[in-house]
Amino acid sequence: MSTLCSDQAILTLGGNEYKFPIVEGSEAERGIDISDLRAKTGHITLDKGYGNTGSCESAITYIDGEKGILRYRGIPIEQFAMGPTFTDVAWLLINGRLPTTAEYDEFSADLTRYANLDESMRHQFEGFPRVAPPMAILSAMINALSCFHPELHELEDESQFRHAAARLISKIRTIAAYAFRHSRGLPNIYPDPALRYVPNFMHMMFSQPYKQYICPQLVRDALNLILILHADHEQNCSTSTVRMVGSSGANLFASCAAGVCALWGPLHGGANVEVLTMLEQIHQGNITPEEYVKQAKSKDSKVRLMGFGHRVYKNFDPRAKMLGAIAEKLLPQLSAGDPLLEIARRLEEIALSDPYFIERQLYPNVDFYSGILLRAIGIPTNMFTVIFAIGRLPGWIAHWWEQNQTQANRIARPRQIYVGETHRDFVLRDNRR
Ligand code: ACO
Fold this sequence. Notes:
Family: Belongs to the citrate synthase family.
Order of helices and strands: EEEHEEEHHHHHHHHHHHHHHHH
Protein name: Citrate synthase
Pathway: Carbohydrate metabolism; tricarboxylic acid cycle; isocitrate from oxaloacetate: step 1/2
Number of strands: 6
Bound molecules: acetyl coenzyme *A
Strand content: 5-15%
Largest sheet: 3 strands, antiparallel
Shape: globular
Number of helices: 17
Mean pLDDT: 94
Pfam family, one: Citrate_synt
């Protein structure tokens, strides 16, 4: 809970003075509580894109965008490079603390137990055309889980919630892999209970009925870290979507399916695909890095330097720093080196020394290097944003539950400043001009 500060904000409006409480979070972030602004003054706030609006109090993730700080449940993101598994991080985000060995083993066993999809659900993949984007299938199939688990629409207690969360975290991987196999016309590969979270996903993606894919340790470590670095990012577009849908009382599966749709957009999770397209364009010689940056700066073009800029970070995104360092280290070991990494480095160098990017505080974000790494470990481009969704799922679940458990939860329902026609009368069709 935030604490109430001793000082207050004073708003002068129409000759009257109104006082509003100021609240402070555990990292000394302050906010003016305007919950009764409209009741007191008849006015609302207008904050396009919600850049100044706190929609909730949350204890899950802390970001200081000016200093480049990101912490999950208090733990700095950099410390997750030192060996925890994605399973550890998922448990941490959802439950608020690191699991004991017994809790970890139980959660891990649940992830293994729940990996299979109902057979009739498995057949539904055949109804999608080959060209269906895997993000569309992912969202549809996560929503379809609501049909297969009506008993989990209303979660009675924490234990039932944990099982619902484990089901979803386990099954998203199977759904993702089947969506990919479908796009290639390949037979589905059942999950292997002997394999842990990441290698099991890679097995379902790349094994053949006649040949098992063995996930190299390097690939496993890289994907594990990529998932961890995407696991939560407080009130971003997709998480806010999950919370908004959940605020109406919609179940966990339906809310997370909506999160997938929000993540898909090129200004959000879809940017990792756009980064690759941009690097490929430059690599194919269609445009030089210098010319691309020039276009990105031009007011007349719609081009943006993809993977650059962030609503919250006005400094280096710590996740981009970590991914850039891993790409540098792993790429020579995973492949003969990727020319796209060189191009990315060059773009970064040009942008970081250009006044346009310096003045606007535009730095590389998480998507700038993630695509290059995903490519190096063999993930096809149409699956990049799907991987992001697998990573982000524990965050969505943690936020959905946090909100569900908040006594004061109100349905999310912003207001607007209406700018349309004022009162006018309906005209019968024959009398219209
Ligand atoms: N390239 C060129 N100019 C940019 C870029 C960019 N990547 N990002 C922002 N700008 C410019 C804008 O044109 C604007 O300039 P102006 O003040 O002259 O009008 C200024 O910087 C502020 O930009 P906004 O769009 O107002 O910033 P906002 O906070 O709304 O958007 C966003 C943030 C969407 C991430 C933006 O920086 C962007 O489009 N980046 C590229 C897409 C991308 O990488 N998205 C992934 C974000 S991370 C994630 O979601 C996981």
